[in-house]
Amino acid sequence: MRACNFKRRTLYPEMTLKSSVALRPGGGGRASAGRVAGGSDAVFAGRQTGYHARSRYRPLAANEARLMSDLKVGEAQPIGSGRVQVRRVLARNASLMTGPGTNSYLLGTERVAIIDPGPADTLHIETLLAILDGRPLEWIFVTHTHGDHAPGSAMLQARTGAQMIGLAPPLPMSGMGDHDQTFVPTRLYLDGERIDCGEFRVRLIHTPGHASNHLCLLLEEEGMLFTGDHVLEGTTPVILPPDGNMTHYLESLRRLQSLPLRALAPGHGKVMTDPPTAIETLIRHRLRREKKVVTVLSSMSRLGGEVALETLTPGVYDDVPAHLLPWAQRTLLAHLLKLEEDGSVVNSEGRWHMSPAAALQDATKDDS
Ligand SMILES: [Zn+2]
User: Left, alpha or beta for 74 (phi > 0: left; psi -120 to 50: alpha)?
Assistant: First the structure.
């Protein structure tokens, strides 16, 4: 099934999990050690407009217009400046949950790397092998182990013997949903690690939030960041607790702001050519939603005390179609858990209210 209003509002679920590793050098040093269950999907609100952060990087040249090329299933579409050969191959798994489908990316001309082989779709894997045309596939990178990104890895690895680079999936637990347990990294990979692929280098950047084992992959020679589902084109990923974590998601977005990026190549959708604006837009979208959570919860709390999640959802997501509310509700929970961590709201046996301090602040604001 394909969302007819994909450009405006899309649902892309991807499951989430908690993986082992990932250290943040100099950046808080958090290790996402525990293996926690979770699921994450992505409800995409419409792209925000009217905001433009000033890019620190040079604008795209005319010959880089191909970065914006339309997506075509099963074709090797060149993207990037050409310093490193990068080709995008769209898998045929378009759906309400995956938008136009999953993007697989091939990097290099002699010794090749593939990012996100996608679902375990024999036709897609055969397409990737045909594009390789006998050249050795030496590296398989996986941004995260959701079912639309990772399961093709084992099939490709069996045919090529390539190294499997990524973070391990969480242990399967009740409610975990669609996590690819067949993905087994060749070794333990660390946040910030640079993989030397001869013609190019790929830096691993741990970006938990959508999935606890999510990596963004920086192709250094191009300044191109393969964002998986951390940043998507035309929509915003959902954050589904317990594996999805809104605090981590916002931290991971802010982390990208310090990178020298010229383009974002997402797991779904087209290349984005203004990374600072795309990232800032996502941050603002989340903070705006968080503010709405506080506003709606405050007013409902005043009327009736503690509020159930189901009661809160339609008020906070009054801009989301009714059939997407179950997913919106899960992301709302992620917002509430962040606010609870921040000390703004209190969870009392599954019902929510403002913390006394936040309520007092709110009342003071009303009086002023
Ligand atoms: Zn995805």
Answer: left
Name all domains of the chain by residue range, CATH numbers in brackets: 10-274 (3.60.15.10), 284-367 (1.10.10.10)
**Are residues 310 and 333 in contact, defined by beta-carbon separation less than 8 angstroms?**
no
Centre of ligand 1 to C-alpha 350, Å, is 30
Q: Compute the distance from residue 303 Cα to the ligand 1 centre, in Å.
A: 40
pLDDT tens digits in sequence order for the chain, 368 residues long: 333 332 333 343 332 222 222 232 223 333 232 222 222 233 332 332 222 222 333 444 444 445 556 888 988 999 998 999 999 999 999 987 788 999 999 999 999 999 999 999 999 999 999 999 999 999 999 999 999 999 999 999 999 999 999 999 988 775 555 789 999 999 999 999 999 999 999 999 999 999 999 999 999 999 999 999 999 998 889 898 888 999 999 999 999 999 999 999 999 999 999 999 999 999 999 999 999 999 999 998 877 689 999 999 999 999 988 888 988 999 999 999 999 999 999 999 889 999 887 776 766 665 54
User: 363 C-alpha vs ligand 1 centroid, how far in Å?
Assistant: 42
> What is the gyration radius of the CA atoms in the chain, in angstroms?
21
